[in-house]
Amino acid sequence: MTYKPRRMRFGAFFAPFHNDRTSPTFALERDLDLIRWLDQLDFDEAWIGEHHSGAYECIASPEVFIATAAERTRHIRFGTGVSSLSYHQPLILADRIAQLDHQTRGRLIFGVGPGQLIADAYMMGVDPQRLRERMGESLEVLVRLLRGETVTAKTDWFTLQEARMHILPYQAELEIAVASAISPSGARLAGQYGAAMLSVAASSPQGFKALADHWGICEQKAEEHGQRVNRDSWRVVAPFHIAETREQARRDLEYGLMDMFNYFHKFGGELFPQVKDLDEAIDVWCTGGLGAFGVGLVGTPDDLVAHIQKLQEQSGGFGAFLSLAHNAASYEATQKSYELLARYVMPHFQHCNDNRTPSLEWAASNADRFMAEYMGGIQKAIDSHEAEQREKQAKGAKAS
């Protein structure tokens, strides 16, 4: 049986992706503006990535970005999406996260992962094959530090000597979310520590097939370690672009989808072959996808509803759906895409209109009775007024 939350949460996952012709200052400001727009549209979450190479994914510090975004928004929560644990001394990272939780007044989710871009690892001299191992070593002590414990630990890449945080997070229990892509390592760690799971490659062919298995692994590990996990905290990420018509959605992607393909080709080589035109790019994106970037959905709000339902059925159900922000459409078309999601897709999964249609139908079925009583009330008021006027006239005639 598929788990269906009473109110599914919605958000966006910002790598982000901006072509290398755009001013980075302008690009960062656009992302901040878009998050402010999501806040106005009542989105629940915004996740901010960490990358150090490649130019397109141009946010190096999710903490710095989130601190600014929090000042410009009212209610939306922020996730580090993700902090690459393999690249940070755990105590310093824990302190930064605790400070940010205070500055956002508890609107923070601590998303963690091993590090996605191999070029990042290479520049820091980190063996890519050890990224997940290092992540596990870091997460083990981070969980303890964030609980206020004193930790002594030594690995071949960090040392903690009676380490403890001098300021704990604002929240009594800071939510931790572990990124899970193709391998089961993220699901295993999420279960081991009772953390949330963040499926960043949910719509990729391999990631889609592994959705249900990964949740099963997460539950199994949670049971082994005496932890509890909840599908409501499971986030699933997928890219899409919607418009009022499918034709308009495709036209919108003339703006930047080819740029996206060029970026992935440069980073992935033969794994991401070049395409000759936009039609081929859309076809590849909507069928085979772009690796961990996933299979895209290009269409209408109704198409997106069906797409999310498919993900629900494949996974067994989750609590939050996150758009993988891509900048393949113009800023204005992207704003419109998120607006359509808020107007027509979110209500379907949040059940906020469940009572509105029955209420309208009930009013319609009783309209004749209500109108008769309504008109009767009007006529009664008219009759009362006329009777009062006649009485006044009669008294006036008698007085004269």
Concise summary:
The chain has 400 residues and is an alpha/beta fold. It has two domains: 9-354, Alpha-Beta Barrel (TIM Barrel), CATH 3.20.20; 361-399. It has helices spanning 24-40, 62-71, 90-103, 118-123, 131-146, 185-193, 205-224, 246-252, 257-268, 278-287, 301-315, 331-350, 356-365, 367-399; strands at residues 9-14, 45-48, 77-80, 83-84, 108-113, 151-154, 159-163, 176-180, 196-199, 235-238, 240-242, 297-299, 320-325.
Descriptive notes:
It is a single chain. Strands 1-2-3-5-8-9-10-13 form an eight-stranded parallel barrel, surrounded by six helices. It has a two-stranded antiparallel sheet with strand order 6-7. The chain has a two-stranded parallel ribbon with strand order 11-12. Helix 1 packs parallel to helix 12, helix 6 packs parallel to helix 7 and helix 11 crosses helix 12. The protein starts with 8 loop residues before the first strand and ends with a helix. Helices cover 50% and strands 14% of the residues. It has two domains: 346 residues, Alpha-Beta Barrel (TIM Barrel); 39 residues. The mean pLDDT is 95. The chain contains 14 helices and 13 strands. The protein is of the alpha/beta class. It is elongated. Helix 2 links the parallel strand 2 and strand 3.
